[in-house]
């Protein structure tokens, strides 16, 4: 996805376009710009399996992920923001940090945060599902919005330049190589996060996530893709199709059954939200990878004992039709 917010348009429209671009790339945010008339920005995003890499440039602005935005769009990925040019200020969980060029910070989409951009800047953000970092909730809450510098230990000095190089080159290589680089980048982020957390949070252990956990985390990030299949998942995670099926069988499930269950659970949660009354059932189904609304309704009834419409009505405190 590539979005240019510096195309000719009224100043207010440029800011609105930028807010929509950031919200599509990451999660719902609110944007304020001090001087819309003299402001430009651009954004380019590449989705590679469970990893998303986004390059952005912008003029001075404030980006806010409020508690209301979190409630309305409850994505729970983690952002690793690598500052390339310009200095910005980030805050989350009653902490704040200044990010000069070359530094990195982690932000959790599951909680409110703020990014203040006082000067024109350029940044590269890697977005991954929480489980891929392999850290518990306590550790994650204690090191977001803290600065990671290349000089803060051997791991940082080695890994930050590698992440920078992978993010810069990944879009220009062949697709099979992209998949391998994406997995490598996710692994580097997990190691970097674990090392950073271990220095800030006593008792934090390195990630020991199983292959099954890593695969299911990558699938969670792709539930909305109607073309998601066992073969696609196997290719993205560098395992054979046969071995993928064996991993799920050991957990007492099948690949397709696990995907369907997670999609239904996600739709079930979305339909229970207060604003679900304004959404078409077919739109919710499509959002979670169901291309056939009738099939979705049958699967939903089998799983929960009622139709999606009945569940939405019950969740809002009134009986369904």
From TrEMBL:
Could you tell me which residue ranges the HTH araC/xylS-type domain spans?
213-314
Q: Does the keyword Nucleotidyltransferase apply?
A: no
For this UniProt record, the keywords arranged alphabetically read as follows:
DNA-binding, Transcription, Transcription regulation
By its UniProt entry, which InterPro entries does this protein fall under? AraC-bd_2, AraC_XylS_family_regulators, Homeodomain-like_sf, HTH_AraC, HTH_AraC-typ_CS, Tscrpt_reg_AraC-type_HTH
Q: Which SUPFAM superfamilies match?
A: Homeodomain-like
Q: Does the keyword rRNA processing apply?
A: no
Q: Which PROSITE patterns match?
A: HTH_ARAC_FAMILY_1 (PS00041), HTH_ARAC_FAMILY_2 (PS01124)
Q: What is this protein called?
A: Helix-turn-helix domain-containing protein
The organism encoding this protein is Actinoallomurus vinaceus
